[in-house]
Specification:
The complex is a heterodimer. Chain A is mainly α. Helix content of chain A is about 55%, strand content about 5%. Chain A is built from 40 helices and nine strands. In chain A, the strands form three sheets. In chain A, strands 2-3-4-1-5 form a five-stranded parallel sheet, with helices on both faces. In chain A, strand 2, helix 19 and strand 3 form a beta-alpha-beta unit. The radius of gyration of chain A is 49 Å and the shape is elongated. About 20% of the residues of chain A have low confidence. The longest helix of chain B has 27 residues. Chain B has a seven-stranded mixed sheet with strand order 2-3-4-5-6-1-7, with helices on both faces. The mean pLDDT of chain B is about 90. In chain B, helix 4 runs parallel beside helix 5, helix 8 crosses helix 9 and helix 11 runs antiparallel to helix 14. Chain B is globular, with a radius of gyration of 24 Å. Chain B folds into three domains: about 180 residues, P-loop containing nucleotide triphosphate hydrolases (Rossmann fold); about 50 residues; about 100 residues, Up-down Bundle (Zinc Finger, Delta Prime, domain 3). By secondary structure, chain B is α/β, with parallel strands linked by helices. The chains are: A mainly alpha, B alpha/beta. At the A-B interface, helix 30, helix 32, helix 33, helix 34 and helix 35 of A face helix 3, helix 9, helix 10, helix 11 and helix 13 of B. Chain A: GO terms for molecular function: ATP binding; DNA binding. Chain A: Belongs to the activator 1 small subunits family. CTF18 subfamily. Chain A: Its main location: nucleus. Chain A: This is AAA+ ATPase domain-containing protein.
Chain lengths: ~950, ~350
C-alpha cells in the first residue's frame, strides 16, 4: 500500500522539489505589486494549498495519517480538518476537470461526488472506525485495479502531449493531474459506502452539519479561512503559508517568462502564420489557467495598469544596464557588516572589484573602504537618469534582493525639513517588530531633485553628523548614527540643492535601455495580454518613446483598449506615446544644421509599404519643414536657440557665392529680434509662433550632410558681462567726479570723447628723479596732473599680478575701457612714477580735506589771535599769568526769545549773576608758579599739523 | 578745474566765443523776466551745457556754481527701486532721466513734482521759479515724454524746464511746441582753431596754427574733443610741431580697421572675424548707432556712384531695425553681410563688363 502510494505521488513530490526556491533569498514582492487578480487568486489559493503543506512531506500522507487521531480527539478539530480536506479535494477536482478538458474526458459523476465526500467521511466516523478503515482499504485496492489505470493512461498521454509542446510550462497541469488522481482514489471508496439517495437523511442526525450539504460557497470559504487560521496559530508549518504561496507564484511567473522568452525568440524567425498558431496555443494555455468558462481576460485585470502588472519582480528580470545594477548591489552589500553583521569576505570582494574595473569604465567606482563604523565611505547612492528607465524599480528590487525592507519616500509625501527628518530617523533607526524574521529597513528617497534645500540639508547633516560623532563604539546604538543604506533617486542630478549631496554619494547614471531588450520584453507582455503586434512595431514604439519603458507599456495598454491589433500604422499615426520630449539644445542645432539622411524605414513591413502616406520621405522639403518646426517647437528655448544658430551658421559648409543666403539669414535674424523686442516690450505673446520659423530658414540655407561642430553660444553672455563691467567702471568713475566736471558729461560722452584723450593726458613724461629736484615747470605739470586725476576721480593703486609682481593700476581701470586689442601700444608710466603720482594724489586729497575742515575753524580762531596781538609786547613765559576771561555782561545783548522778541529781565536776576566776580581775580597774583608737564622728558610740546610734515 | 576743457570753459554769456548774437538774445530773454521752457539741441561738443550753465548764472548769479551730486531714489508703482544721481544747486537741479531706463517716466514725474512743489524762498531778490535741467531728452521713452508734457504746463508757476538733446527728431512734437528751441550749432573749424589758439595762449603755450587746424579737422567740429586732443598733444610733445601726429581715439581706429577688413574680402569667414571685432566694440560700450555710422562712413569712401546710394539706403534700413530691436549684433552683422553682398556683386559685374 505504502509503495503504491509513493508511486502515485512520485510525480507530485518531484514537482514540489522543483518548486523549492533555487535561490537562498527570495524577494517578497510588495503587496501592491501583486499582479494576480482576485479571480485568479481564488484558483491559485486552492492550487497553492497543495504546496503550502510541503514541509509535511505530503499533504495526503499527513491527512491520511492524522485523520483518525484527530477525529478521535474532538469533533471540532476533526470538522475543521475535514472541511479543509474536503475543500482541497474539491479544488483538485475542479482543476482536474479543467486539466482534462482538452482530452475531452467526461466525468459526469465527478460533479456530484465532491459534495458527498465529507459527509460520507463523517458518516463513516460516527460508525466504527476500525471496520470502516479496513473497508476503505479494500475499496482502494478494488478501484485502483479497475478504474484508475484507464484514467491514468489518458492523463499521462495528455501530459506527454503537452510536454512536447510546452516544455516546462505544464508543471502546474502536471501537479493538478497528480492531485486529481489522488482524489479519484479516495472518492471511489466513499462512493461505495454512501448511497446517494440517503445523503440528506444521514446528515440529519449529526445536527450542526446539515447545512453543509447545501454546497454553500460562502460557508465553505469561511470554514476554509478558519481552518487556515487555526493552522497558523498552531504553527503547523515552519514557514508561513503566505510566503510559501508567494514563492510558488514567483516560480510560476518565472517559468512563464522563460517559456515566453523562448517562444519570442522562435517567433522572430517565423512568419505570421506561425505566430498565429503560437498565439492560439498561448490562448489555450491561458484558458486552462483560468477556471472553466470564464472570460479570457477578467474585468479586474483590465483595470490594473500594465506598468504595475509587469514590473520586474526579481533581480534577473531587470531591464536596466547590468553595470548599474551590479554597482548598486555591490554598494548595498558593503553595508552588510553594519546591518547584518556579516563579514564581507575579502576574497570575493577583491575579485569583484577587479571584475568591475574591467567591465565598467563609465560607472563610478564604489569605494570599497569602510569607515570607523564599518559603513561604506559613501553613505548614499544616487541614481539619476531620465524618466521611465526603471530607476525606482531597480532600487526596490536590489534592496529587497539584498534582504532589506524597503521604505520609500517620494514627492507625494510632505517633504518639509521637519517631516523629512522624522521620516529619515524613523526609517533608518527603527525596525519592524511584527512578523517573524523582520528585515532591516533600506530608505529609498524617490524624486529627491524636487525636495526643498532645507530637507536635503537635513539628510546631509544626518550623513555627515555621524562622521563627527564617530568615537562611539562599533555597533553601539547611537541615536544619531546612520546605520542603514539610503538610496536617492532623481532625474536631474545637477539641481543646485543636490550639489553637496552629490559629493557624499555614489552616483549612478542610467544609460538608456537597449531598444532590442525593451522590445523583447514588450513582446512578452503583449503575448500575455493576447494582443497582436510584431517585433517591428514594437521596435518602432520603443523608438518613438525614446526607450521609456513606462511610456511604452502605457501606450500598449491604451492601444489595446481601442484596437485589437497594434500595427505600425497605428504607431505612426498615434499621438499617444510620443514623448513631448525636450531634446537637448545641441541635438536641435544638430538637426537644423544637418541634412536628413534618407531614412530606410526599417520598421516598414511588406504590408505597410503599400500605404503611401506611410512612406515617409523625410528628405522632401515639406517633411524637412515640418520636422524642423516640430523639433524647434518642442525644444522651446528660442532665445538660446537663436543665439546658437547665429554663432554657428557661418561655420557651416554651404555654397553661397553671392552671399545672398547669408543676407537672407541675417534678415531673418533681424526680424526675429525685432519681434522678440516687441513681444518683450509690449507683452504681446501672439507673435511668439513666428519665432521658430527662423530655424527652418537656417535649416534650408545651411544644412549640410556633415554638420559643423556646434559650439554652445557664449559670446552674447560674455559680451553682456563685459558691457556691464565696463559700464560699472565708468559709473564708479563718474559718481565721484567733481560736480563741476560731472555736470558736463554723460556716460556716452565720457566714453567716446573724454576718456581716450584723457588716458593720454594723464601720462606725461616725468624725469625719474625725486620730486624735490623738479623744476618749477615740472612741479606745475605734476600739480596739474594731480588736479586732473582728482577731478576725474582716478588714482593708481597697487595690485599683485599673476606672476607675483606688484604693479600700479588705474583705479577705476579706464585703460580696460579705452584700449582695444591689437592697437598701437600707448605709453605707460613707470612703476616709480605711478607710485609717486598715487602718493601725491593721496597727499593732495588730504590737504584738501584738511583745508575744508580748517576753513571754518580758522575763521573762529582768527579772533583770539587778533586780541593777543593787541595786548602789546610779549611777557616772558614765567611771568605770564593766566587770566580768567572777562565775563561779558549779559545786559549788553538784549535777550531774545524764540520769536525774536526782547525779553526784559527783572533787576533780581542781574544781581545774582554778578555776585562773586571779585574773588576769582585774586587767585594767581603771586610770583611763584608751577608748570606741570606730562610724561618723562622735558620736551616742549607743540601742536603740529599734518600739513607741516608734508 | 583741471583739464583745459573745464578750466577755460566760459562761465557767462558775455564770454562765449561763438554764436555771440544768440548769447545776447539769451541775455535779453533773461532780462525781460519772461523765461519760457527751453529746448537746447545741437551736436555733441557744441556747447549746449556751457550755454545752459551761463544762462543759469545769468538768472541766479554765482550761486548756481555751488554744485552737489545727490543720489535720489524713486519707487515705481511695481515697487522697483530706482537710484538716480542728480546734480543740483540751490536754484536748479539737473538730471538725466534716461539713466532710469524704462521707468524714466516715474523719475520725471516724481522729480518735477518735488522740485515744483516748493517755492523759491526769497522771491524779491531771486527769480520766482526754479529750473529743472533734463539732459538726453531724445533718449526718453515715449511714455516719459507724454508724462512730461502735462507736467510742463501744470508747474509753470514754480519751475521751468531746460531740455537738452542732440536731435529733436526723437522729441515728440507736443514737447517741441511747448519749448523755445535753441539750436546750438557745432563750431566751425575756424572757430575751433581760434579757441585752441587762445586757450594755449592762456596756458602760456605756443600752438602753431597748422596744428590747430589739423586738430580742428580731426575733432569733427567737436570743441570738447578738440580741446582734449590739443591737451593730449601737449602731453605727448612740447614744444608743438606743426606736423605733429594727433592721436585719435582707439575705438575710431579700431572701427576703421574693421571697415577696411570688410572691403578687403567678402566671405563668411570674414564675417566671423568682423563679428568678433564688432563684439569688441560693443563690449567697450560704444553705442551701436555710432558703430553703424562709423562703418558706413568708412565703407562709403570705398564705393562709387550708384553703389553709394544703395549702401546708404541699406544702412538706413538696418539702422532703423537696430533701433527697433534688442540685440545690436544681429543688425550690425546683417548690415555687414548686406554690404558684402552688394560690394561683391558690384565687383563681379564690373569684371564681367571688362571681358
Amino acid at each position: 500500500m505504502d509503495d503504491e502510494f509513493e508511486l502515485q505521488y512520485a510525480d507530485e513530490i518531484d514537482a514540489l522539489g522543483d518548486f523549492e526556491p533555487p535561490e537562498e533569498i527570495i524577494s517578497k514582492p510588495r503587496r501592491s505589486l501583486n499582479f494576480t487578480t482576485p479571480n485568479q487568486k481564488s484558483k491559485t489559493d486552492k492550487d497553492d494549498e497543495n504546496e503550502g503543506l510541503v514541509p509535511l512531506k505530503s499533504p495526503q500522507e499527513h491527512l491520511n495519517g492524522s485523520t483518525l487521531d484527530i477525529i478521535s480527539d474532538a469533533g471540532i478539530t476533526g470538522r475543521s480538518v475535514f472541511g479543509q480536506r474536503r475543500d482541497k479535494k474539491r479544488a483538485r477536482d475542479d482543476e482536474f476537470t479543467n486539466a482534462l478538458e482538452d482530452i475531452e474526458m467526461e466525468f459526469v459523476e465527478d460533479e456530484l461526488l465532491p459534495e458527498i465526500v465529507p459527509v460520507s467521511k463523517k458518516a463513516k466516523l460516527s460508525g466504527s472506525i476500525a471496520a470502516s478503515k479496513s473497508e476503505i482499504l479494500d475499496d482502494i485496492d478494488d478501484d485502483l485495479s479497475s478504474a484508475t489505470p484507464e484514467v491514468m493512461k489518458k492523463i499521462v498521454n495528455a501530459r506527454q502531449k503537452r510536454n512536447t509542446r510546452h516544455g516546462q510550462l505544464d508543471i502546474i497541469p502536471d501537479v493538478l493531474l497528480t492531485a486529481s488522481v489522488d482524489y479519484d482514489f479516495e472518492r471511489k471508496r466513499i462512493h461505495r459506502r454512501v448511497p446517494s439517495g440517503d445523503f440528506i437523511a444521514v446528515t440529519g442526525y449529526e445536527g450542526e452539519r446539515v447545512y453543509m450539504k447545501l454546497k454553500d460557497e460562502a460557508t465553505l470559504e469561511k470554514e476554509y479561512i478558519s481552518l487556515k487560521k487555526s493552522i497558523k496559530s498552531s504553527q503547523l508549518l515552519a514557514v508561513p503559508f503566505e510566503e510559501l504561496r508567494q514563492q510558488v507564484e514567483d516560480e510560476r511567473q518565472q517559468q512563464l517568462m522563460a517559456e515566453s522568452e523562448r517562444v519570442t525568440s522562435e517567433v522572430r524567425r517565423q512568419l505570421d502564420t506561425d505566430l498565429d498558431i503560437v498565439e492560439g496555443d498561448e490562448r489555450e494555455i491561458e484558458n486552462e489557467g483560468l477556471e472553466g468558462t470564464g472570460p479570457p481576460v477578467p474585468a479586474d485585470e483590465q483595470r490594473s495598469l500594465w506598468v504595475e502588472k509587469y514590473t520586474p519582480r526579481r533581480y534577473t528580470d531587470l531591464l536596466s544596464e547590468e553595470n548599474v545594477n551590479r554597482t548598486l548591489l555591490h554598494w548595498l552589500r558593503l553595508w552588510d557588516y553594519v546591518v547584518f553583521g556579516k563579514e564581507i569576505s575579502l576574497k570575493t570582494k577583491e575579485k569583484k572589484a577587479v571584475k568591475e574595473n574591467k567591465k565598467k569604465k563609465f560607472q563610478p567606482q564604489v569605494l570599497e573602504e569602510l569607515d570607523k563604523l564599518n559603513r561604506p565611505l559613501q553613505k548614499i547612492a544616487m541614481l539619476s537618469g531620465p524618466p521611465g528607465l526603471g530607476k525606482t524599480t531597480l532600487a526596490h528590487i536590489v534592496a529587497t534582493h539584498a534582504g532589506y525592507n524597503v521604505v520609500e519616500m517620494n514627492a507625494s509625501d510632505d517633504r518639509s525639513a521637519d517631516v523629512f527628518k522624522n521620516k529619515i530617523e524613523a526609517a533608518t533607526q527603527m525596525k519592524a517588530v511584527m512578523g517573524d524574521n523582520p528585515k532591516p529597513n533600506c530608505l529609498i528617497i524617490d524624486e529627491i531633485d524636487g525636495a526643498p534645500q532645507a530637507a536635503i540639508n537635513v539628510l546631509l547633516n544626518f550623513v555627515k553628523k555621524t562622521e563627527t560623532q564617530a568615537p562611539t563604539k562599533k555597533n553601539k546604538k547611537d541615536g544619531a548614527v546612520l546605520l542603514r543604506p539610503v538610496i536617492c533617486i532623481c532625474n536631474d542630478q545637477y539641481v543646485p540643492a543636490l550639489r553637496q549631496l552629490r559629493q557624499n554619494a555614489v552616483i549612478m547614471n542610467f544609460p538608456p535601455t537597449e531598444t532590442t531588450k525593451l522590445a523583447a520584453r514588450l513582446y512578452e507582455v503583449i503575448r500575455m495580454e493576447q494582443f497582436k503586434a510584431d517585433m517591428n512595431t514594437l521596435l518602432a514604439l520603443c523608438e518613438k518613446t525614446d526607450n521609456d519603458i513606462r511610456s511604452c507599456l502605457n501606450t500598449l495598454q491604451f492601444v489595446q483598449r481601442r484596437f485589437k491589433e497594434l500595427s505600425l500604422k497605428t504607431i505612426q499615426n498615434l499621438s499617444v506615446g510620443h514623448k513631448d520630449s525636450q531634446k537637448s539644445l545641441f541635438s536641435v542645432w544638430y538637426e537644423i544644421f544637418s541634412l536628413p539622411r534618407v531614412k530606410r524605414n526599417r520598421f516598414l513591413s511588406v504590408r505597410d509599404i503599400s500605404d503611401k502616406d506611410l512612406q515617409v520621405n523625410n528628405t522632401s522639403p515639406t517633411a524637412r519643414f515640418w520636422n524642423i518646426i516640430s523639433v524647434v517647437q518642442s525644444a522651446g528655448e528660442y532665445e538660446k536657440l537663436t543665439q546658437g544658430l547665429f554663432e554657428n551658421y557661418l561655420e557651416c559648409r554651404f555654397k553661397d557665392p553671392h552671399m545672398e543666403g547669408v543676407c537672407l539669414a541675417n534678415e531673418w535674424l533681424c526680424f526675429t529680434d525685432v519681434i522678440n523686442q516687441h513681444i518683450n516690450h509690449m507683452q504681446d505673446y501672439r507673435l511668439m509662433p513666428y519665432l521658430p520659423y527662423l530655424s527652418v530658414i537656417f535649416h534650408f540655407l545651411f544644412a549640410a550632410s556633415v554638420p559643423p561642430k556646434v559650439q554652445y553660444p557664449h559670446a552674447q553672455f560674455e559680451a553682456f558681462t563685459k558691457v556691464s563691467k565696463c559700464q560699472n567702471l565708468v559709473n564708479t568713475m563718474m559718481s565721484d567726479m567733481t560736480p563741476m566736471v560731472r555736470k558736463f558729461l554723460n556716460q556716452s560722452i565720457t566714453l567716446l570723447e573724454v576718456l581716450p584723450p584723457l588716458t593720454d593726458i594723464i601720462q606725461p613724461s616725468f624725469r625719474p628723479v625725486n620730486t624735490q629736484l623738479y623744476s618749477a615747470r615740472e612741479k606745475e605739470d605734476l600739480a596739474q596732473l594731480i588736479r586732473i586725476m582728482i577731478a576725474y576721480n582716478m588714482t593708481y593703486h597697487q595690485e599683485k599680478t599673476a606672476d607675483g609682481q606688484y604693479n600700479y593700476i588705474l583705479d577705476p581701470n579706464m585703460e580696460e575701457v579705452v584700449r582695444f586689442p591689437g592697437m598701437k601700444q600707448h605709453r605707460q608710466l613707470t612703476y616709480a612714477t605711478k607710485q609717486m603720482i598715487a602718493r601725491e594724489i593721496e597727499l593732495e586729497k588730504m590737504r584738501r580735506g584738511e583745508a575744508s575742515r580748517n576753513r571754518h575753524q580758522e575763521s573762529m580762531e582768527e579772533k583770539p589771535e587778533n586780541e593777543n596781538l593787541k595786548k602789546g609786547p610779549l611777557i616772558p613765559n614765567h611771568r605770564q599769568k593766566l587770566q580768567a576771561k572777562p565775563i561779558m555782561k549779559d545786559e549788553d545783548k538784549p535777550i531774545r526769545d524764540f520769536f525774536g522778541r526782547v525779553i526784559i529781565k527783572t533787576s533780581q536776576d542781574i544781581k545774582d549773576s554778578s555776585k562773586d566776580l571779585p574773588e576769582n581775580r585774586n587767585v594767581l597774583k603771586t610770583d611763584i608758579w608751577f608748570h606741570f608737564k606730562e610724561g618723562f622728558s622735558n620736551a616742549v610740546r607743540r601742536n603740529v599739523k599734518v600739513q607741516d610734515f608734508i | 578745474m583741471s583739464l583745459w576743457v573745464d578750466k577755460h570753459r566760459p562761465t557767462s554769456l558775455n564770454k562765449l566765443d561763438y554764436h555771440k548774437d544768440q548769447a545776447s538774445r539769451l541775455k535779453k530773454l533773461v532780462q525781460s523776466g519772461d523765461f519760457p521752457h527751453l529746448l537746447v539741441y545741437g551736436p555733441s561738443g557744441s556747447g549746449k551745457k556751457t550755454r545752459i550753465m551761463c544762462l543759469l548764472r545769468e538768472l541766479y548769479g554765482s550761486g548756481v556754481e555751488k554744485l552737489r551730486i545727490e543720489q535720489n531714489s524713486f519707487t515705481t508703482p511695481s515697487k522697483k527701486k530706482i537710484e538716480i544721481s542728480t546734480i543740483s544747486s540751490n536754484y536748479h537741479i539737473e538730471v538725466n532721466p534716461s539713466d532710469a531706463g524704462n521707468s524714466d517716466r516715474v523719475v520725471i514725474q516724481e522729480l518735477i513734482k518735488t522740485v515744483a512743489q516748493v517755492n523759491q524762498l526769497e522771491t524779491s531778490t531771486q527769480k520766482e521759479f526754479k529750473v529743472v535741467v533734463l539732459t538726453e531728452v531724445d533718449r526718453l521713452t515715449k511714455d516719459a515724454q507724454h508724462a512730461l508734457r502735462r507736467t510742463m504746463e501744470k508747474y509753470m508757476a514754480t519751475c521751468r524746464l531746460i531740455l537738452c538733446c542732440n536731435s529733436t527728431s526723437k522729441v515728440i512734437p507736443a514737447i517741441q511746441s511747448r519749448c523755445l528751441g535753441v539750436r546750438v550749432a557745432a563750431p566751425t573749424i575756424e572757430e575751433i582753431s581760434q579757441i585752441l589758439l587762445s586757450t594755449c595762449k592762456k596756458e602760456g603755450l605756443n600752438l602753431p596754427l597748422d596744428l590747430a587746424k589739423k586738430i580742428g579737422i580731426k575733432s569733427n567740429r567737436n570743441l570738447r574733443r578738440a580741446l582734449l586732443m590739443c591737451e593730449a598733444c601737449r602731453v605727448q610733445q612740447y614744444p608743438f610741431s606743426p606736423d605733429q601726429e594727433v592721436a585719435e581715439p582707439d575705438w575710431e581706429l579700431y572701427l576703421k580697421e574693421t571697415a577696411s577688413m570688410i572691403v578687403q574680402q567678402q566671405s563668411p569667414q570674414r564675417i566671423i572675424e568682423v563679428r568678433a571685432r564688432l563684439y569688441e566694440l560693443l563690449t567697450h560700450c560704444i553705442p551701436p548707432d555710432v558703430i553703424m555710422k562709423g562703418l558706413l562712413q568708412e565703407l562709403i569712401a570705398n564705393c562709387d556712384g550708384q553703389l553709394k546710394t544703395e549702401v546708404v539706403q541699406n544702412a538706413a534700413y538696418y539702422e532703423h531695425r537696430l533701433q527697433l530691436g534688442q540685440k545690436a549684433i544681429y543688425h550690425l552683422e546683417a548690415f555687414v553681410a548686406k554690404f558684402m553682398a552688394i560690394y561683391k556683386r558690384f565687383f563681379e559685374e564690373g569684371i564681367a563688363d571688362l571681358f
